[in-house]
Predict the 3D structure of the following.
Amino acid sequence: MVWLQRALDLLLPFLIGLGWFLDQAWLKSEMPWAWLAFLYGGFFVIVAQLSGVYRQWLRRSAFTIMRLVFQAALMSLAMAAVVWGVWFDSRLAELDVLLGWWLVFLLWLVGYRWLIYLWVWLVRWRFGQQRRVVICGAGRVGQTLANVLQNTPGLGYQVVGFFDDAPLPASLQNQGYSYLGPLNSVMTASKQSEFDEVFICLPLQDDRQIKALMDGLADSTKVVKFVPDLFAFDLMHTHFVDLKGLPVFSVYDSPLTSLTSQWLKRGLDVAVSVWVLGLLWPLLLGIGMAVKLSSQGPVLFKQVRYGLDGREIKVYKFRTMTVMENGEKVEQAKANDPRVTAVGRFLRRTSLDELPQFYNVLQGRMSVVGPRPHAKAHNELYRDLVPRYMQRHLVKPGITGWAQVNGWRGETDTLDKMQKRVEFDLHYIKNWSLWLDLKIMVLTLFSLRSAC
């Protein structure tokens, strides 16, 4: 089913174009529109794969499907337009013609997915093809599982009730779930009751109880599934890996492990950096002259910081202070800090002192978007004070980041400020996507505008 979707998504721009473009005489004579259609289809399939459009899409809500498809369609349209305009021909078409073609394509993308979604739901409702399940364990995992099964009709499950040695929590009772008895009664019920599957959702420390349930249910004809209590651990970007039959949970991992995601993020970094440096080089030259003439010292400040995988890198900034601290002790700049020069104060307020870091991005040491790199001395200090602090280095550091656009930038004079910054950085790593990168870039531009 998924491969059929990919093939259809690749061909849809071309198939729609057969009826949409052939009436346009200028397209038939001047523009190989078919190449544009296939180029766009290819970009859409790649972006859709990375953004999770094809991942268990029947188990999502209709709104989520629409949102993911729209994001992938919009991003791939921008990529196809840039590639076509740079390497082929900038005369794409009249804007209304291309916009109409894209909207029809978008309607088909969403429409055929909704039709399949509706068909599966109707089949399960009409023919009663829902699996009746019971849950052993009314704790956090069991409650989460029940909500997922009940709120996702595409899964085809109906929760009959709970087995647990403790009374059913009020939250489950208010939702109408039934208490079926203590845990050891599930074996007897499995031979008498009309349900199809048993989900065991007990804490991992209850290994004896889990084994007893599994051994007891081995004498039944019910499907038995075990849901591990991963909430007991502080996990990030967790996913399941099958190593030739050996189940492995990736606990602390980077979202950029695949070559495709690495290439796409690197391509975005290079494109943005070349555009910024090529467009703003007169501003960079002017800032450099202002820094040089306003105070003694070099124009650029080079500081050793931690990059990807905790490796040391040199980060470039326009010098904004009269000192060049880069040792075992680095004092953060404070409000009205006497070390900050007059020019430096303006550069810091507008973040223009960060512009040389686009050269770091071209070098491959940094990314446009990512956790902000801290001074080496600060890393060594906070890695012992803030849990999972070093997990920030699972991706390249960035010029801007999710923490910065949410207000957690500047001086971290208290521990809770650094904890909040790390919290937002880890959220970014866990939820990374190209769409999130673009969103952060746009939010950064708005924040800079307000600062000015």
